[in-house]
C-alpha cells in the first residue's frame, strides 16, 4: 500500500466501531490478554504485549470503509492529481520489488495476487510481465484510479473473505504484500489468509517497516526522557487515521510468525541502522 490519501476526518477515531469492539489488551500477534498501554500518543496509545513484546496502537479500520472512514471517497481532479504526483516515488520502489520477484519466478502466465494494491501500479507491472493479475484494494478511490489509469479491476473484498478463501484456496503462484502488514487490522490473520490462497511451491513477497531499528530506539528514548511529553518521533511511526500504520514487527517476530504459519523463508534483507528501515522477505509455501 504505497500511497496514502490524506483525509480531513476528525471523527473517525471516535466513531470507528471495530476499534470500540476490540479489547486491545488482547495481543494482535500472540492473542494472549497480556497487552497494556506503553506510549500515549496524541490521538492513539501504543500497546505492548508482556508475552511477546508486540507493539500496536488502539485503532482498527472500519472494513469495508464506510463514508466516514474514507472522506476522500470520490476521485475528483484534485485526488487524481495527488495520486499521479505520488506515483513516481512508489514506481521506483515497486520496480525494485519487481526485479526481486523475477529473481525467483518467471511471471509469464503466473497467477499473481497483489494485496493492498493501492493505485494499481504493481498490478500493472505484473500485467506487463505477462502475469494473470488479481488485486485487492479496500479504498474505493484507488480502485477507481487503477481502473481508469491502467484498466485494472481491483477487488474490494479483503483476503479474509469467502471470495478469496474459498474461491482461490491454494491457487496463486505469487502473493505480494508491499507495505501492507503495518496497515491492516490483524496482520497475523492476514498472513495466514495469504498462505491459504498460495499454491504449494508458490511464493510470498513482502516488505514492512522493522521495529528493532536505531530510529525506533531513539523514538522510545526520546519519549521516556521527555517524561511522556515528547512523542513526536513515535507519532511519525503510528497513526490512528484510516489505513495508516497500526503495528510494527521486529525481525524476530515476523520470522517466527511466517514460520509458524508454515512458510519457509528463502531470503531476508534488512538493516538495524537505517531510519524507517524495511524488512523484505521472500517466503515459499512448501
Ligand atoms: Zn503478544
How would you describe this structure to a colleague?
This protein has one domain (12-71, 78-284): Vaccinia Virus protein VP39 (Rossmann fold, 3-Layer(aba) Sandwich). With 286 residues, it is an alpha/beta fold. The strands form two sheets. The chain has a six-stranded mixed β-sheet, sandwiched between helices. Helices cover 34% and strands 20% of the residues. It has helices spanning 12-15, 17-21, 77-104, 121-128, 140-150, 162-165, 187-197, 214-225, 232-235, 251-261; strands at residues 35-40, 45-49, 55-57, 111-115, 132-136, 172-178, 198-209, 247-248, 264-269, 278-284. Mean pLDDT is 90; it is low at 6-15. Helix 3 packs across helix 4. A hairpin with a 5-residue loop joins strand 2 (45-49) and strand 3. The chain is globular. The chain starts with 11 loop residues before the first helix and ends with a strand. It binds zinc ion.
Keywords:
6-stranded mixed β-sheet, binds zinc ion, about 290 residues, Rossmann fold, about 20% strand, single chain, globular, alpha/beta, 4-stranded antiparallel β-sheet
In terms of topology, how is this protein built?
Elements: H1 12-15, H2 17-21, E1 35-40, E2 45-49, E3 55-57, H3 77-104, E4 111-115, H4 121-128, E5 132-136, H5 140-150, H6 162-165, E6 172-178, H7 187-197, E7 198-209, H8 214-225, H9 232-235, E8 247-248, H10 251-261, E9 264-269, E10 278-284
Parallel strand pairs: 4-5, 4-6, 6-7
Antiparallel strand pairs: 1-2, 2-3, 3-8, 7-10, 9-10
The chain binds zinc ion.
Zinc ion binds next to loops.
Amino acid at each position: 500500500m504505497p500511497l496514502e490519501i490524506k483525509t480531513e476526518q476528525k471523527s473517525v477515531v471516535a466513531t470507528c466501531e471495530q476499534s470500540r469492539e476490540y479489547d486491545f489488551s488482547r495481543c494482535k500477534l500472540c492473542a494472549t490478554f497480556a497487552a497494556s498501554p506503553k506510549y500515549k500518543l496524541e490521538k492513539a496509545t501504543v500497546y505492548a504485549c508482556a508475552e511477546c513484546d508486540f507493539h500496536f496502537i488502539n485503532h482498527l479500520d472500519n472494513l469495508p470503509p464506510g463514508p466516514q472512514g474514507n472522506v476522500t471517497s470520490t476521485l475528483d481532479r484534485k485526488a487524481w492529481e495527488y495520486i499521479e504526483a505520488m506515483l513516481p516515488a512508489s514506481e521506483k520502489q515497486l520496480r525494485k520489488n519487481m526485479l526481486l520477484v523475477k529473481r525467483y519466478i518467471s511471471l509469464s502466465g503466473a497467477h499473481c495476487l497483489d494485496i493492498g494494491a493501492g493505485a494499481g501500479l504493481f498490478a500493472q507491472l505484473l500485467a506487463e510481465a505477462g502475469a494473470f493479475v488479481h488485486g485487492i484494494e479496500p479504498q474505493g478511490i484507488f480502485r477507481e484510479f487503477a481502473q481508469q489509469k491502467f484498466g485494472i479491476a481491483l477487488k474490494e473484498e479483503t483476503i479474509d473473505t469467502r471470495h478469496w478463501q474459498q474461491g482461490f484456496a491454494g491457487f496463486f503462484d505469487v502473493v505480494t504484500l508491499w507495505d501492507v502488514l503495518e496497515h491492516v487490522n490483524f496482520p497475523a490473520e492476514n498472513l495466514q489468509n495469504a498462505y491459504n490462497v498460495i499454491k504449494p511451491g508458490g511464493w510470498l513477497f513482502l516488505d514492512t517497516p522493522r521495529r528493532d531499528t536505531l530510529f525506533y530506539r531513539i523514538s522510545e528514548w526520546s519519549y521516556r526522557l521527555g517524561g511522556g511529553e515528547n512523542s513526536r518521533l513515535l507519532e511519525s511511526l503510528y497513526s490512528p487515521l484510516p489505513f495508516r500504520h497500526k503495528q510494527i514487527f521486529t525481525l524476530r517476530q515476523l520470522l517466527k510468525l511466517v514460520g509458524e504459519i508454515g512458510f519457509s523463508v528463502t531470503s531476508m534483507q534488512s538493516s538495524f541502522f537505517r531510519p524507517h528501515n524495511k524488512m523484505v522477505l521472500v517466503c515459499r509455501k512448501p
